[in-house]
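Quick sanity check, UPF0301 protein CAG72_20205:
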Amino acid sequence: MNLTNHFLVAMPSLQDPHFKRSVVYVCEHNDEGAMGIVINLPIDVSVGSMLEQIKVERDLPLAHPASLEKPVMIGGPVAGDRGFILHNSKEEYSSSLDLTEEIKMTTSTDILPLLGTKDEPSQFLVALGYAGWTAGQLEQELADNSWLTMEADPEVVFETPINERWDKAVAKLGIHSANLSTEIGHS
């Protein structure tokens, strides 16, 4: 099983505050474990405020100030001081990983001065931290019915309002969220 480029959609029974009603975009999944970014748990910091706090200087004038009003996400409980940007740009940055043709992940700071300018990716999500699982840990959580899985959809990542991403991901599975039980069980 390889869940790279899939969503993990938290079941209602998953009450861990880091993952309650979360949607995780899985960036990598292999025999050594998994890594993903939570895409629907915002913190009370905008992208613009974050850039000011870390003193990012721009060479280009602002062209898209509204994009700087986007909230930063809590990407997960691991390495909360590290930034991750999911985006759709075809441009390469010094540390970009092509996850799909439509989604890339960049961890290098060379993308930061471009946010809000004419050269920013047309769609992006900024997260601090990531979600990580050791070998076999995610598979056990799946066996425990903590997560639903589905192929990732860029529309959910970039276009769906943050507070609707969990419901939209559940709906894409053909399920109404009201029909999900908070009870865990095996048949």
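Posting the structure with no commentary besides this: The chain has a mean pLDDT of 91.
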